[in-house]
Every structure is written in C-alpha cells, then in structure tokens.
C-alpha cells in the first residue's frame, strides 16, 4: 500500500510542535497591547489626538486607544489619580502634581505644544492692569494650571497670591460667574475663554504670550504601562505625526473635525490653533525629549513652585523619573 500511516515518532514530533505553537500564540496574546485609555479635556493643542481617533490613525498604526473626554485639566488629573485611565493630556503642572502625590507614576511621552497666548487672565471692564487685582476675587482651578498662571502673573507686578482672593472654580462655572460679576477676574483657556470674552466688558488682562514657552503641554502615560509595552511611545508619536501631517495637507477638513469637538466655529478654532499655541511635529517633540536635562529642570522648577504655593508638600525628587532618557 502506497500511503502508510505516519510513524509514531513523527506524530510525536508534530504534537510537540503544535503544543509549542499554542504556547507561543498564547504568550503573544498575553503581550498584545490592551486598550489604552487617555483622559483628554478641551484645548486646541490636544485635538490632534481626537483627529487621530476620528480618522482611524490609531487603528492604522496598531493601537487600540480610547479617549476619555472630560471638561477640564482638573477632571483629567482626578481621573488619572483615581486609576480610571492609563494616561492623560495636561500641562507640566498636573503631570508633576500626579507624580509627587499619586500611586501611579507616569512619564512624558509626547510634548504636544506650548501655550502662546491661549492661557489668559480675563477681567471685568474696570480692571485694566494686573496691579488692580489686589483685593479682588480671582477665579481659577486652584489645584491645576490656573493657580500656577496666576502666581506667575502676579509675581511680575510685585504681588503674591495672598494679595488676591483666590476662588477655586471650574472652567464653565467660572465663565458664568465672571459674566455675572461674581468674579472680578478668571484664569482660563480656550474654548472657555472664547465664550467668556463675549460677555460685555470682559477683556484679556494677561496672556501666556507674555511668558513664552512657560506653559508646556504633554501627553503622559502610566509608567507601568510603558514598562509592559516599550514600543508604545514610538507608536503614539507616529500617530501624532500622522495627524499633524493630515492637518497640514487637509486644513479645512481637519479644523472642521477639531472645531466640532471644541464646540467653536472653524474660524475660531483656526485662530486658536495657528496663533495662540505652538503645536509640535514629531521632530519638535523629539527635540524637547532628547534635551532631557532641560526638560527635567523645567519639571523640577514647576515642582518647587507648586510646593512654594502649597499645592503639595512632597519631595520633588520623584520628578526625575518622568523623563526616560532611553525612550527615543
């Protein structure tokens, strides 16, 4: 007979090979990237991530990302610190506060933008200079970027936080209270600032353009996630660049998508994106990350200022691990 049964030895070898294949596939499955959740709040500099989600760029580059849309920097900070998300977009202020006080250490993976006029202090019509804020009620997110912006603005004119009445208030509520005259001034940012400026007499008293490159926005990811998936930073940066290039090549379509999420007109969003922030492309982001000593120094300075204004009482040494020199 021409077709004999396989020898037992060959059967045994094939069975072993099949078992090994199952083990390998099982290991691959266990190491496969799980869904990554990122807290994001309205701010034009973060919108490339939303654009990437809408255009399917995460999926194209092998990532399963869920953007958790929240109302403010403070909300994103709380979501991360409570373990609800794997990462967040924020300024260095929120990232540092998380690092020194949270059970979930993080690392900066993408510097997204510098604020270049987007962060503002708005005031009622009768207040025409920062010195006139003395004794006034100033609203801000007290455990977030707002208090930091107010501290630096007041310091420029010889005032301190103790010279004003700081009112801890969220973005939407702060805008309403400024319009009603409950607040004399408000620390805010787009898109809230756009709506707040529509109230009669409300005007810009201070903008981040007066403090160039002071406010750096970043995407940070939980350190334990990065340890499991060391290729993740490169993948996220590739997605970011894809969205950046799409915006360059198709500005009309890109701005329409991003403006809709920010709930502003396309014209308003385009003005914010082009004039009030400086968004980094891949090379710009890498330049900041590779100059790790300068970035670490900036993180340390931020941490020390936050400690000075009683936003935390922890040791700032933990911020040194927020920048991974081997990441890129």
From TrEMBL:
Keyword list (alphabetical) reads:
Signal
Main localization of the protein?
A: periplasm
Domain SsuA/THI5-like intervals: 48-254
Q: Which Pfam family, any one of them, does this sequence belong to?
A: NMT1
Q: Where in the cell is it found?
A: Periplasm
Q: Name one GO cellular component term.
A: periplasmic space
Q: Can you tell me which family this protein belongs to?
A: Belongs to the bacterial solute-binding protein SsuA/TauA family.
Any idea what this protein is called?
A: ABC-type nitrate/sulfonate/bicarbonate transport system protein
């Amino acid at each position: 007979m021409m077709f004999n049964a396989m020898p037992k030895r060959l059967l045994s070898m094939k069975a072993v090979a099949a078992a090994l294949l199952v083990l390998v596939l099982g290991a691959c499955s266990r190491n496969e990237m799980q869904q990554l959740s990122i807290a994001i709040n309205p701010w034009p500099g973060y919108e490339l991530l939303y654009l990437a989600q809408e255009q399917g760029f995460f999926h194209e580059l092998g990532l399963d990302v869920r953007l958790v849309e929240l109302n403010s920097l403070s909300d994103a900070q709380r979501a991360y610190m409570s373990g609800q998300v794997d990462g967040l977009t924020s300024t260095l202020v929120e990232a540092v506060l998380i690092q020194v006080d949270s059970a979930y250490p993080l690392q900066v993976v993408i510097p997204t933008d510098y604020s270049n006029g987007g962060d503002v202090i708005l005031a009622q019509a009768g207040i025409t200079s920062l010195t006139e804020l003395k004794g006034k009620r100033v609203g801000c997110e007290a455990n977030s970027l707002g208090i930091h912006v107010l501290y630096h603005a007041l310091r420029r004119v010889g005032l301190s936080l103790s010279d004003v009445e700081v009112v801890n208030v969220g973005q939407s509520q702060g805008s309403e209270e400024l319009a009603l005259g409950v607040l004399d001034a408000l620390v805010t940012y787009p898109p809230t600032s756009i709506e707040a400026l529509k109230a009669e007499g409300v005007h810009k008293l201070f903008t981040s353009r007066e403090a160039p490159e002071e406010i750096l926005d970043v995407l940070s990811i939980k350190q334990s996630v990065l340890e499991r998936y060391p290729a993740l930073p490169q993948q996220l940066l590739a997605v970011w660049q894809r969205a950046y290039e799409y915006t360059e090549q198709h500005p009309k379509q890109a701005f329409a998508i991003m403006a809709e999420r920010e709930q502003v007109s396309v014209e308003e969003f385009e003005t914010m994106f082009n004039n009030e922030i400086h968004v980094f492309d891949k090379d710009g982001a890498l330049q900041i990350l590779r100059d790790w000593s300068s970035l670490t120094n900036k993180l340390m300075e931020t941490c020390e200022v936050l400690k000075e204004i009683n936003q935390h009482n922890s040791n700032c040494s933990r911020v040194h691990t927020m920048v991974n020199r081997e990441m890129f």
